[in-house]
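Hi support team,

I'm opening this ticket because the web form for multi-chain structure prediction keeps timing out on my end. I have pasted the exact lines I submitted so you can reproduce it. The total is 998 residues across two entries, so I didn't expect it to be a heavy job. Is there a limit I'm missing, or should I split the entries? Thanks in advance, R.K.
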Amino acid sequence: MSLNTLTIADARDKLRAREITAVELTEACLTAIEGASALNAFVHHTPEIARAQAEAADARLQGDDEAPALCGIPLGIKDLFCTKGVASQAGSNILKGFRPEYESTITAQLFASGAVMLGKLNMDEFAMGSSNETSAYGNAVNPWRRGNDDTALTPGGSSGGSASAVAADLCLGATGTDTGGSIRQPAAFTGITGVKPTYGRCSRWGVIAFASSLDQAGPMTRTVRDAAILLQGMAGHDPKDSTSADIPVPDFEAMLTGDIRGTTIGIPREYRMDGMPDEIETLWKQGTEMLRDAGATIRDISLPHTKYALPAYYVIAPAEASSNLARYDGVRYGHRARLAEGDGITEMYEKTRAEGFGAEVKRRVMIGTYVLSAGFYDAYYNRARKVRSLIKRDFETVFADGIDAILTPATPSSAFGLGEMADADPVAMYLNDVFTVTVNLAGLPGIAVPAGLDAQGLPLGLQLIGKPWAEGELLNHAYVLERAAGFVSKPARWW
Amino acid sequence: MLDLTFAPPTPKTIEGATGPWELVIGMEIHAQVSSEAKLFSGASTRFGAEPNSNVAFVDAAMPGMLPVVNEYCIEQAVRTGLGLKAQINLVSAFDRKNYFYPDLPQGYQISQLYHPLVGEGEVLVEMGQGTARKVRIERIHVEQDAGKSIHDMDPTMSFVDLNRTGVALMEIVSRPDIRGPEEAAAYVVKLRQILRYLGTCDGNMQNGNLRADVNVSVCRPGDYEKYQETQDFSHLGTRCEIKNMNSMRFIQQAIDFEARRQIALLEDGGTVEQETRLYDADKGETRSMRSKEEAHDYRYFPDPDLLPLEIEQAWVDDIAASLPELPDDKKARFMTEFGLTDYDASVLTADVENAHYFEAVARGRDGKLAANWVINELFGRLKKEGHEIGDSPVSAEQLGGIVELISSGEISGKIAKDLFEIVYTEGGDPATIVAERGMKQVTDTGAIEAAVDAVIAENPAQVEKAQANPKLAGWFVGQVMKATGGKANPKAVNELVAKKLGL
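Hello R.K., no limit was hit. The queue was backed up. Here is the completed structure from your submission:
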């Protein structure tokens, strides 16, 4: 067995027992990455950093029996995270060549606990996309394929590079970010686990902003236990982020007891969508049964404003993005267009942004600018904010009514073919987020767990939604699902 | 307390071809918060630093950087609100004002449109004894300053200095309660005075730390009163905003020009377009910067990087308790406590440092005498030499010493002036100087009597004249003072001369 296929938990135990070294583990991952260029998951490789960090981790593991769980664990980092001295481009040409002088709080925390960075992972440009096809690097590819079909499939988005890398065993875990489903949808498409923590659980400092009130970083791993371990390393209060919460972080792994007896799981009727494939409906029922069998009470619930979530999300997120992306103007860093004789500042802005941003980013900047403009603000942005409050209240109501967690499908389909949506209405792509955006709008924690395969042999995921700050309980429910589903499938290697 | 009741001043009237017009003025004052660090970053606010040296990552809007509010800047704004007797909003929020400009790295200014930190307050603007305009404050909000674009250093390129980017400003918005150019300038003077008393803004207009946007409109007599009754702006004329004024003189000139421009326009049958204008001090005129159609759509929305700002009443109360005495109260107290005239009290309280200086001189001494010496001798001398009170060569303690020597009769007023000169140029303790240099006033009647006798004996012709015309006795007094080197007590000399001459 190659070391790169280990789970974080197993690798940690073996590192602590000195059965393996961090250098060996890292080399195994670097070799796997080298052989996986067809996946286009890693877009910036940092083997020198990885080897140096691995050596340091080995030294620490030698001398310290209490070394952190992540000490010596090789990770991939989404390109949205600013990493000091290492290209951090948010998958965009407008940040071409940008190497920050600072380290994001999350990566700084991970490296302080001894984690190893293998490189930066592909993503949709500025995290705007559900298929990885908006990436300036070209899309990452899903390691999974349909039964007897060589069609290249999307790993999902925006954290598609992270999902692809974790599913293909290129790294033991990866960081992702989730604004409307960008961790959970790619996790579901690639048969891995992804957690979108409560808004404020992980610092946003140094994570390039898409929509500030919705963005939240989280772990993407092969198991629920690994997700608990990686989340532990990413979470915590950060005074540099005003929206980060000063709330204690519990020991998530210790909360994985597998005992959910006495809890109540809500099944929201509004998530039963027209035209939803039978396989997903079936999987959802199976998941419900698994939780019931484990001793949970199942209750049908209503989240009446669900149908307004997607439109509200596609007003709020572009509005914030249009403002957040104004800083990419060619004045101080990143791409600046070559100017013609006589061009002034307006031409510099226009040409730089026209060249630097891709079509989807431009579309969202324009939508966002429109919904915030005088005369439309109340009709769009303010109304969307009101809808957001109602969606939040829907959740508060059911939680107050005794619901501990909510079970839904993670996505309305399995992974689709790359290019399949090229001619579709952008809204068809936006529908990928239909089960996930409510969680971002309400600031709640959500987790996607692989629960089965569809008829074509592609992974399908279920989503659990929890109460604010209840990631531990949520992970424990996911752990129960994971064990009951017994999902052990791996993509057959073709790359 | 004195009874501070005031009559409002007469609004300025401009006589047009078709009759008289009145002015209506509202102001937005941008005051830089006195603070070592910027509003949302730890970068220094020091003026005059090398370009782009006071810039944190967040000021340069590097990717992923986030603002964290500087509590001290908020405290300063609350203090300002309390100083203007304004409502403090315990919950306020920051909004983004979006526009593109190279000296605005984020592409938006963080400001407070929807929920400002400070609500309604007022400022009393005195326009002479017993006359004052009460100007209502609509709101004060806290916001970031922009950087500086420099267009004249290179023929093809512009340069940007971000040192100022992100420095905290308070925007103090008045209601349209100001009725003439002089009132507008007096309003800025008064506001500046209060801010300096509070220590929340240094008021340095040259450095741009206090700047004003002035909204001017004109109306017919009687219209303003209708507006006041109804608060309906349709009774007033269309306003133009003159941006970024940083001199009291230019503010007055710009308002006067702008009002006359609007009147000429209206009397020619035209209309005033709502627009933003700039004042060109060289030409003495305002000109259009951008029309209403060209006005930016700032796309304000709540800043999602910052949670609503919640402050506690107890914290506000603590700030209120530590508020210094403000100009109106100080002036009233100077009048009652030290017996000063309205005029002297105004002069001495105009600036907080002057007031502190005076109080140190006057405390426990003759207040009126102290006021005379501070205003006439010290201020006069400092002004002549271009000094500020802060770098006065004569300390309050030294001047107090001089005042004390006069009060106790140890030196005469004339000697005191010589003494002041010595202290001003050479320094030293006044009492010691008087003792060492023999400047002490002679009050020994024996010695004075001898001098008087000598002068009378030497000038029999003058004695005859003086006895015929008592007004000439002053000549003897002068001679005696001369003979005693000015040290004789003038009162004693006067009495003795009169007595000896038999007047």
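A quick check on our side: Chain B has a mean pLDDT of 93. Let us know if the file doesn't open in your viewer.
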